TrEMBL record:
SUPFAM superfamilies: Ribonuclease H-like (SSF53098)
GO terms for MF: nucleic acid binding
Boundaries of every Integrase catalytic domain copy: 96-261
NCBIfam families: transpos_IS3
Lineage of the organism: Bacteria, Pseudomonadati, Pseudomonadota, Gammaproteobacteria, Alteromonadales
GO terms under biological process: DNA integration
Protein name per the record: Integrase, catalytic region
Length: 267
């Protein structure tokens, strides 16, 4: 550096951050921490705008560099469910039509595995594809029919759907069992099934599990099954109430349902 450049730098006035900028930095840190380091510049920008800050994506990138907010990279995970060939299966009635016209028309369910220091746990969820809201879930150390039954029964108790609802899943032994079929028939729910391992045919639920594992659970050591259960339930609350979804017009599932309820008048 030349002598003149050095003295020019010394005389340059120090930039003083305004109170609004400091509040924006503080909010950005809080949002990034709440997401467990999963918010990229696009989603962080949307969240900052939602919080009332007039900010663009280029500015958000600069903020992330300044605050050293680095997103953790995603990792792939494997399919865990298998079909029992003696069980009957349903046709793929849904056929990748993931955007029904209103709530309680199409639900989707799936099972995934979770690692703890006490051993594996298995999570079954039920999602309303209209709003991407998780409406039922169950977690256990065993992957049984009880697991998926409890998740569906929770969703039924909360939503009280009318006859004609469709439930989409894969063809794993839990969903093709006689017990689960009888539960569907009891509430007049139509079954739809895709092939085991065909992730594109249940892409929305697969995406939820990817977000859970790569945005929330990655690099977190769960010493006990009870800790994992509590953490998963916290993520479901975060997912339903706080996480913005591009498909929903950058709304949360709860806000999307509430908005559409006001517009259409359904309850």
């Amino acid at each position: 550096m030349s002598r003149s450049a050095f003295y020019d730098w010394l005389e340059r006035p120090v930039k003083i951050n305004s109170e609004e900028e400091l509040n924006m930095y503080r909010t950005a840190r809080q949002l990034f921490k709440r997401s467990r380091g999963s918010l990229g510049s696009r989603q962080l920008c949307k969240n900052l705008r939602r919080a009332g800050f007039n900010v663009g994506r280029y500015c958000t990138r600069s903020i992330m560099r300044k605050l050293k907010l680095v997103v953790t990279q995603r990792q792939a995970y494997k399919v865990t469910t298998k079909r029992k060939h003696s069980n009957s299966v349903a046709d793929n009635v849904l056929n990748q039509q993931f955007n029904p016209a209103q709530v309680n028309l199409v639900w989707a369910g799936y099972v995934t595995y979770l690692r703890t220091n006490q051993g594996w746990m298995y999570l079954a969820i039920v999602m309303d594809l209209y709003s991407r809201r998780v409406v039922g879930w169950s977690i256990s150390k065993r992957m049984t029919v009880d697991l998926v039954e409890r998740a569906l029964q929770m969703a039924i108790n909360i939503r009280e759907p009318k006859a004609g609802l469709m439930f989409h899943s894969d063809r794993s032994a839990q969903y093709t069992s006689g017990r689960f079929s009888r539960l569907l028939n009891k509430y007049k729910i139509t079954a739809s099934m895709s092939s085991v391992g065909a992730c594109l045919y249940n892409a929305v639920v697969e995406r939820f599990f990817g977000s859970l594992k790569n945005e929330w659970l990655l690099n977190v050591v769960h010493l006990t099954r009870e800790m994992m259960k509590m953490d998963v339930e916290e993520y479901i609350r975060y997912y339903n109430h706080e996480r913005l979804h591009t498909t929903l017009g950058d709304l949360t599932p709860i806000n999307y349902e509430n908005l559409q309820s006001q517009v259409s008048g359904w309850t």
